[in-house]
Amino acid sequence: MSALEKFFCPGSVAVVGASRTPGKAGHTIVRNILEFGFRGDIYPVNPGCEEILGLRSYASIGEVPGPVDLAIGVLPRRQTLDLITECAHAGVRSLIIPAAGFSDVGAEGRELEREVMEAARAAGIRVMGPNSIGTVCTGCGIATPIVTLDRMRPGGVSLFGQTGMLASGFARWIQTSERFGINKIACLGNKADLDENDMLEYLATDDTTRVIGFYTEGVSNGRRFAEALRAAAGAKPVLVLKSGRTAGGRKAIASHTGALAGSDEVYSGLIEQCGARRVADFEELFDCAKALEWQPLPAGDGVGIVSITGLGCVLAADSASRYGLRFPRPAPRTVEAMRGALPDWVPASNPADIWAAIEARGPKEAYGLVASALADDPDVHSLVAIFTLIPESSLDVMELFGPLAESHPEKPLAAVLMSGDALMYAEWKRTLEGNGIPAYHSPERALRALGAMRALNRKGMGAADAAPATQPARSITPPLGSRDVR
Amino acid sequence: MSALEKFFCPGSVAVVGASRTPGKAGHTIVRNILEFGFRGDIYPVNPGCEEILGLRSYASIGEVPGPVDLAIGVLPRRQTLDLITECAHAGVRSLIIPAAGFSDVGAEGRELEREVMEAARAAGIRVMGPNSIGTVCTGCGIATPIVTLDRMRPGGVSLFGQTGMLASGFARWIQTSERFGINKIACLGNKADLDENDMLEYLATDDTTRVIGFYTEGVSNGRRFAEALRAAAGAKPVLVLKSGRTAGGRKAIASHTGALAGSDEVYSGLIEQCGARRVADFEELFDCAKALEWQPLPAGDGVGIVSITGLGCVLAADSASRYGLRFPRPAPRTVEAMRGALPDWVPASNPADIWAAIEARGPKEAYGLVASALADDPDVHSLVAIFTLIPESSLDVMELFGPLAESHPEKPLAAVLMSGDALMYAEWKRTLEGNGIPAYHSPERALRALGAMRALNRKGMGAADAAPATQPARSITPPLGSRDVR
Prior knowledge:
Low-confidence stretches of chain A: 461-473, 475-486
CATH class of the largest domain in chain A: Alpha Beta
CATH topology of the largest domain in chain A: Rossmann fold
Mean pLDDT of chain A: 92
Distance between the termini of chain A: 39 Å
Strand content of chain A: 15-25%
Oligomer: homodimer
Largest interface: A-B, 82 and 81 residues
CATH superfamily of the largest domain in chain A: Succinyl-CoA synthetase domains
Strand order of the largest sheet of chain A: 9-8-11-10-12-13-14
């Protein structure tokens, strides 16, 4: 069994330094674990009180009555060595250390980290951190961050990285804006023990994880990393966000987590060779994650576009080649079907500018006829509909996408909400993504996500190979999709 | 006087093809002009009715009692030639042609456009279009689009381009999400007559326009374009969004507006040589426009960053050099002031990771002390504060930015709302931008905007030269900033 299993699915968890005071980190962790519905035993440890959030509190980890699968030590960094000793005596073998001030702040911290890790290794304790806010697992209801977190929408995407943002700010953003379902999150901090390689090896064989995304500032064991990445990317789609692209960035990384960032080009080549996909920033990471979570991988590089505006067609065309995609010329049958919507003087092309058709027949019929004509074209492998959120183009967007998804479950669909009213934008995005249709703010972003999916498929890697077993052709109603948070 | 003056500030306007039917383009235009508070005469022209939206309607443009400074002909493309004849007889010299189906759709349309333009030239009529939804001018209350538009926040930014999106979808997006103030908008369509060059020449000397942004798919007269761009960029900041970066994009452009896109590299070099700034997409165009509208140009390339998360520091550092910016090491006095907020073990560096300070002193004091220390540093020329919208870091954000803006009116400020709750994001963005502080969704986007401002200043071009006359050091309360739409 992977050492990581206990960090995500422990049978019992102790919070050392738990607190009765709302706002304190030691209070928040207990609250988060309760909020996420953890079904195992929770042991707050604090010699100064007897009960925390309705749970009995213990004076020391040694007094906890049952076995402790996972401990979180919410203590000042100077008490970490004592914590290791206590955990060793109590038989705890998995420990999260949230405290910062170790290798993340210079020579003195590095020395302290070395001592802590020496003691942990001697006691057989696996450590996440220091400077780590730990893990989230929606399946077993664990959530160890030191900042409050609302229960998250469960799903197939697992994320990890040095940064605590994945289980704090980004977790909230995903929950309230991006809406894809989370399986597991790990914030690795200084990676004094558990690191990217452990995570990749663990998630590669984790059946409930269908998409992996991770952020790294640099890895320490290049050979093991390549092996772990190749194995994971062979099993499911893997998205890699690597910072340290510039010298300035690498310097900042050194002072932040003490990691050596390494040559950026080497990483790019390695990631591609392993069959994973490098993304440029968190926006792209989430854009791709949701498409991979909700939509099938495209069988080819042909994209059909139906757009309310010629500008949408131009911007899409301008970025297609950058993402390895093309717009196949509509087949004769497709042209015939498109002609049913378009005024005589408007050419039936792809990308299709349907403004004149909207003026003539209204948005519902114009989008419906042209989109289904393109989706029926055998050379079209994915379909994008571009909208502008103005009163003149209002329609029930799932009346368009629902039938398309049903008639072509094998073709990924995406929506572009290119501009218009911000309130309509939020409402359309919620409707679309609540139904598993990824919605992007520009044609470029939609094509970037489709290009990533195409690349993951072309390599013969990713979920395509294992589609029947681990990924349904399309989850048109994603888990909890109808239970939108706001 | 520029031929364009009558398109933005006419004393009277006729809508040929005006309609009593809500939803029809000929109805919408009249409605828009009323909505924007136009103070001149409005003449609906429609032989089939006597009154439209409370205005007397005329049977033909020849029967209109007063002079017509500007006509908009909302007619099928086949009636355009007759319209030119009528306008010529009635003495109309400025005409907007919204109809599409000219050079935008192929050979037959090109021939029709040629005939129309020959007749217009013979009659001395200047044309915007065909395939143009015309202009917006918040100053005189003109708004000619064929889709409904709500009255816009007035300000100093003027935008133009082929696309009608600028006065429809993007106009709504700016109004409801981006919030910078609009001076003028022109949608040039097929540019059979008036084009980018006319617009640049006009806006260069238009005193109320303080920032110019435009989208182009290609220009016809390179020499005149270079001259016009250089003159405009010498007078105020100019942002250029040019599509047709790829062969696929250029092909799409040819079928959309019939323009020849030209070599992309030539454009990049030309734009830079002229002292303007090329932007990559509409997101960057708006990101930069708002910063230029609200904030002063930075005197140098030194950026100070205060961030709730080390990740924000790394991402900022990673993109700084790409945008020609650097993070100066804090001066001894700055370090001393920062130390007042930071725990002993946290280094006083720039970018400054203040999470430990927030834990120790709360967000208000931590952000306040570190940000003002950095802003006081003479080597820091602009300041960025990075937030994560989680309950633990809640603060009154204008209590932070207000004093900074007051003590350093010469230094541009920006906020990064990096992640967190989507509702908090919308609220913070509204508060910040209602007070003239641009808010971005990632460190990369904030630095990209500051980099553009720095480049515009370094070239000795843009508003810096003319700052006292045309641009206040900072409009901390932008026009209508407190009158947020939603």
